[in-house]
Amino acid sequence: MEILYHSTRNNEKKLTASQAVLQGLAEDGGLFVPDELPKLDVELNKLKDMDYRGVAYEVMKLFLTDYTEEELKYCIDHAYDSKFDTEEIAPLTYADGAYYLELFHGATIAFKDMALSILPYLMTTAAKKNGCKEEIVILTATSGDTGKAALAGFADVPGTRIMVFYPKHGVSPVQEKQMVTQRGANVRVVGITGNFDDAQTGVKQMFNDAALKAELKEKGFVFSSANSINIGRLVPQVVYYVYSYLNLLKNGKIAEGEQINVCVPTGNFGNILAAYFAKQLGIPIDKLICASNTNKVLFDFFTTGTYDKLHSMDDQSHEFSGDRKFMLTGSPSMDILISSNLERLIYLIAGGDDAKDKALMADLSEKGAYTITDEMKAKLTDFVGGYADEARCAEFIKGLYDETGYIIDPHTAVAGAVYENYCKDTNDTKACVVASTASPYKFARTVMTAIDEANASKDDFALIDILCEKSGVAIPQAIEDIRSAAVLHDIVCETEEMPAQVKKFLGL
Question: Which pTM was predicted?
Fold first, then answer.
């Protein structure tokens, strides 16, 4: 069965999967969604003995239907290879009542590797399939991890260039060092003086700038995206939720058909949307626990049905009143107030009503907020919102370490703390997979300060060495590579200067 894609804001124009991957963002500013969500066509008991690559093929073939078996297996085999430092690709670690799905064993030690290792192969294959003669220019906004993973994936890939914009003062020192030391003749990294939302908005505006795109096309360039707005980013993320369920089934932790919960630290909403897609495939997932940090715009949304980027909700009255401030936290990849991927869910719970979705997104753009209907809100019962502030996250990191010796990063701590609160509130005893989205080595200062405040005065690489001693886990090569690496990218610009920087990069 062929799956076609269309914009969340226009049901009429249909694209194949490879065309949607190649284009990235719809011309009307919407996000591509499949015309229907497929179902697994292999029994879970047969899937459970497959390795990660085998499961990836069985899942991705359902969404990427115009890729041949040979093409898709080529992409999968080249993506999930020795760049991952564990044979299992995405192992589960049990600690204090939860199964932590370690998604950080790739080249850049963050979960973005799971999708961005394969996206360059999907995209270059799509270019060949569709006779794309132009050089593909990947424009990406990052809150810390997508940027490095995309840079590593596309560096020196023929027929592509990649430009990453990041908030200059909104990422961890290790995240920044990873990006600004990136080698490759086709890469450029630019810091902006705003926050991630500013970077993401700037990139979307360039995608929607018809004059700019026409100018680029005349010069032999075409835009695409490595952000999770690209369906080619989202589909590979579905795989590891399927795989984690099969892992629990294979190892006798659950019975076939037994439901589990999933808890995901969430900023841009792509990672938990992938879990929702896994549930629609037929994986027995009950609750999707959406964990926010202090920037709790998603918690407020799931509590009230109102998405408001300008005003914050009072937890007691559930009224929106005070100004919502963008907070820089110890979990910077979640420091986001405009969760782009939520639009895909909004479209789905609106029953595929593109006009309704378009109107709500216009409200967000023009008024800073929108409110879904009661009928739409009734379709969100799969989701549970929660949030954890900085103090709670630090407490959870220390508590888990003291109790088990297991050390997690701040983003995973947000999810762990929210899941712990959920269990206390509900007494739900189902097995739970907690998405562990980054190595603690990426956020050594936050992690080690939480474990022992006396560490706060030490420099970042000293903290990394202490973390190694305490965790017993070898320092990843991605960290060793940047200890003495030279800074190759030092441009900083205002958000309004982003298009000029793109033109300069392309020699226009």
Answer: 0.94
